[in-house]
Specification:
single chain, 484 residues, alpha/beta, 7-stranded mixed β-sheet, 11 strands, 52% helix, globular
């Protein structure tokens, strides 16, 4: 038997053992009618849950970004253990994962946590690692991993429907009664990623549905990730934990694990130890920024201390990038757009999708949004070719299951701000007013100010009910970058 086939057998054995233990626990504690129903179809239920866990395991392990753009990387080989702080208490990531495996927090209290972190802090990777950890340990809980942005555009009656849809996403058949029984018995550990990525129009509704789920099924552990915000204060049963920044040693460990030119990594780590740890400590402490720093260092040899310049350099590096393992190889451009034109079109694409609260793009939406970007900019390009430049040539947009998204939400926000900066002065107030409704969690407004503070005045930063100027007006052709 080959190593690959052995690995497949081993992982199948792991998840089958987990689902078996979880269902056995349900059979011991359930009422006679429930025990009879589950015992009768135990093997079928084990197979269905195991198939889901294996499928979700592979999606949680796969990492795609602007460094790993040709193939997926294995999260378990890149992950650097992180810490959490709640009140005055610090908890290591592995310690937190072990507590999740028991399904409890303090004493017999069910695990109910909201994990906060700024953009790029690694919240999604942390929650994915929690899911993977649970599969490899002697737990008796079935983890259900839901990306909350998938709820955008899909009405749900209550949160059990979202769980049923997630479990059925692998083609397995589950009954609503099974979901209800499992929740009531504490069979599931619900992992909800990206509360801040919900459409604002459904955010409050989803919050209430999660609260109702929490109250109705008190045995069910729930963990949610999101950016710092006030909304979660209404979830009195949830403990709030803050994901801690990387230490210098953790940052270096992350860089060393990346599949990147070894000479460049060595030079960059030397710079981190000598100067960057003093001048860019905050940037280095955020995983996303640390990786961007490596990429831009490889391109220009220096790192800007200004966030907007930091992202400008990242764009330039991605536009100019070549495969460091193939000297002289430069990626093909598909759209025929020049650098400044591509930036203009990409910013229009970002802004028009951002104001519609679309952060996950289907094939159909991609085509619609590309056509809108062409109309907004007045540029002549093929939607298909432009998107290949965005996703293949620059890797700024990456596949995510059956959809696409910006390589990170921060890039979506940055390019939205670049577009606002390109607008004629008389149109900026309405645009700033509109995007300011997300100022508590997003960085668009901060980027607008750093790109050109003179165009943004405080009195504009209010919610607006007007139609989006970013979706309807073709701005003058300007650039917020100084060196394009």
């Amino acid at each position: 038997m080959t190593q690959q086939s052995t690995d497949v057998v081993d992982e199948k054995k792991l998840v089958t053992g987990l689902t078996g233990r979880a269902i056995d626990r349900l059979l011991k504690m359930g009422e006679s009618k429930l025990r009879y129903g589950w015992a009768k179809y135990k093997n079928r239920a084990e197979d269905s849950f195991s198939s889901y866990l294996l499928s979700r395991k592979h999606s949680c392990m796969s990492v795609r970004n602007f460094i790993y753009d040709n193939k997926s990387a294995d999260l378990t080989k890149l992950y650097v253990p992180m810490s959490l702080v709640g009140g005055d208490t610090a908890t290591g990531g592995d310690q937190f994962f072990r507590s999740l495996a028991t399904g409890t927090a303090d004493g017999d209290k069910p695990a109910r946590f909201f994990i906060r972190g700024q953009a790029g802090a690694g919240k999604s990777f942390f929650l994915r690692q929690a899911f993977l950890y649970l599969l490899d340990k002697e737990a008796d809980l079935i983890p259900i991993f839901i990306e909350l942005r998938d709820l955008n555009g899909h009405a749900i009656g209550d949160f059990r429907e979202a769980i049923l849809h997630e479990l059925g996403s692998t083609g397995q058949s589950f009954l609503p009664e099974q979901i209800n029984d499992a929740l009531a018995s504490g069979l599931f550990l619900i992992l909800l990623d990206g509360f801040d990525e919900l459409d604002p129009e459904i955010e409050r509704s989803v919050e209430k549905k999660i609260g109702a789920l929490s109250k109705r099924f008190p045995r069910c552990p729930i963990v949610i990730t999101g950016r710092p915000q006030q909304l979660v204060k209404s979830w009195s049963s949830f403990d709030v934990l803050d994901l801690q920044p990387l230490s210098l040693a953790q940052t270096i460990e992350l860089i060393e694990k990346l599949d990147f030119d070894n000479e460049v990594k060595t030079q960059f780590i030397d710079q981190v130890g000598s100067t960057l740890q003093h001048t860019h400590k905050e940037f280095l402490s955020i995983p996303l920024f640390a990786i961007i720093m490596l990429l831009t260092f490889a391109d220009v040899g220096t790192i800007s201390s200004q966030q907007h310049e930091f992202f400008e350099d990242a764009f330039n590096a991605l536009w100019n990038k070549h495969d460091s393992r193939k000297q002289g190889f430069e990626r093909k451009r598909y759209s025929g757009l020049q650098k400044s034109e591509f930036l203009f079109a990409l910013s229009a694409f970002a802004a028009s999708s951002y104001v519609q609260n679309q952060f996950n793009f289907s094939d159909k939406y991609v085509e619609t949004c590309c056509e809108r970007a062409a109309k907004l900019t007045g540029l002549d390009f093929s939607a298909q070719a432009f998107f290949k430049d965005a996703s293949v040539s620059t890797s700024l947009v990456v596949p995510d299951g059956y959809h696409y998204r910006f390589v990170h939400r921060m890039f979506h926000e940055f390019f939205t701000a670049v577009y606002i900066n390109m607008l004629p002065d008389e149109l900026v107030p309405a645009a700033v007013s509109e995007i300011s409704t997300r100022q508590e969690t997003d960085r668009v407004l901060d980027f607008c100010i750093s790109l050109n503070g003179e165009k943004v005045e405080k009195q504009w930063i209010i919610p607006s009910l007007e139609a989006s100027v970013m979706a309807e007006v073709v701005p003058e052709k300007r650039t917020g970058f100084q060196q394009i």
